[in-house]
Amino acid sequence: MKKYDVHMLELVEKSEIAKNIFDFKLKNAQIAKITEPGQFLHIAVPGMVLRRPISVCDVTDDCIRIVFRIKGDGTRRLSEAKKGDMLDVLGPLGNGFDIEKGKTYAFVGGGIGVPPMLYSAKRAEKAYAVLGFANKDAAILCGDFKEAGCELFIATEDGSFGVRGFVTEPLENIIDRVDGVCACGPIPMLKAVAELCRKNGKPCQVSLEERMGCGIGACLVCACKTHGENGDEYKHVCKNGPVFNAEEVAWNG
Amino acid sequence: MADLSVKICGVTLNNPLIAASGTFGFGHEYGELYPLSTLGGISCKGITLLPRLGNPPPRIAEGKDGILNSVGLQNPGVDHFINDDLPWLMRQNTAVIANIAGNTVEEYCQMAERLDDSGVDMIEMNISCPNVKHGGVAFGTSCESVGNITKQVRAHCKKPLIVKLSPNVSDIAEIAKSAEAQGADAVSLINTLTGMRIDIETARPILRNNTGGMSGPAVFPVAVRMVWQVKNAVSIPVIGMGGISSWQDAAEMLIAGADALQIGTVLFNDPYAPIKICKGLNDFLDKKGYKSVSELTATIKPW
Fold first, then answer.
1. Does the active-site annotation cover B129?
2. Pairing between strand B11-13 and A223-228?
3. CA-to-CA distance for B186 and B184, rounded, in angstroms?
4. CB-based contact (8 Å) between B76 and chain A?
5. Could you give the domains of chain A?
6. pLDDT, tens digit, for every residue of B40-81?
7. Are strands A40-43 and A151-156 parallel, antiparallel or unpaired?
8. Could you tell me which chain A residue has the CA closest to the CA of B25?
9. Hey, what CATH topology would domain B6-296 get?
10. Given CB atoms, is B58 within the 8 Å cutoff of chain A?
């Protein structure tokens, strides 16, 4: 079987779980079987030249679940897909989170960075989920993390749900209890989480985002600056990532 | 079943479709999907004498029917290409074209010399990259500089030499003539058109490089026009590219005057485009009663 390929996935369930945030269940046993936590799908959208990279939220039996936010024309058109439509998907792509057996992890998600943490958290022996949102209305997937057996901590910027503030506060309280941290979200959040992990000597994996072209590492557009053996270099989110070791990332690149 | 193979500068290609430089890396990634012999050739990612980091991201923006890129020639350098990428590429049963770019004429010459002793089938001289500060498109925008660099690189290279032309010029046919006069074996066109997109909320350009090179279906009519003009001006082979995304586009570009084609941006949306385009072309040739794809080249009947 090919590592990745173009597959047709049927949209079998669709809902808007928060304003402009869509939850799609896509059916295709072949691709579901080989998809790993933290990988992404590169989805063709009618009328757009470029595919849209969307991270995998969960995999159940023969379905892949994606949760995405409308950000521009491409994601808006994707959100207009109807139940029963076949989506043209290149995937699964990228390197996901490395979840070691028998270890405890904190899964930290911020905003639309929360979805990729769900399937990842399910892989861990013991998982803490630390989720951050702008406010209560923007909160997503909290029930799913609970159902997955995670111990859940929530922070909102306005304090309308969970504690007021950022994910770093609840994370700081539990960081002694975990072997490693996995995170996805806005760059300032990832930077703060990485710094907290560094101070506490915990390995940290971060999932990054960048405007993408081919999705497989051929066109070199989705560059991310990293510390290499011979100085800083550009790696690529699609092929080398989207998950990177936080220590490797040149945050001010 | 028409014969899809074409002969360019003494090199036989399985079919007229060559992967365009910068869209296909060194072939490994698309090679996961299908045998690279599916293509007539691969024009490899542009290489420079020394490794290059490339430009900071974002390096891509989208427009209606097109994209802009500002990669800035990120590559591992000519030695890495020859030692680490080429041996594998040479086993893929497809023509290998090295695409070279430099900051100075001397750098182009040095690279041509090294590649002349390697197994590459052809060398494509990129004097039209819009995304680098030194060299690049600066060599490609006047007849004098194109003639000069072609002449000098020619002296260092016995392999077939393709000169890749920039569309960001007032008369591309004159530029092509200069390349031909100084020893180019073929010309390829068009490289990207310089463009720009701006985020209206932040007033910031989408590309960190501010401007970038535009490709994709939106540039196709410009490319067809330029291929037609160049074909009328030179007698060396013309490799046509710019927004080809279907077999109909491929046929149109051949009719306009292309002897072979390059495809690039379409791959990002449909990695299997080469297979579909070859099949469509083949059916079209059969329907029209052509025995070989080369019979289609320059069959345009202009008004």
1. yes
2. unpaired
3. 6
4. no
5. 5-93 (2.40.30.10), 104-207 (3.40.50.80), 208-253 (2.10.240.10)
6. 999 999 999 999 999 999 999 999 999 999 999 999 999 999
7. unpaired
8. A218
9. TIM Barrel (3.20.20)
10. yes
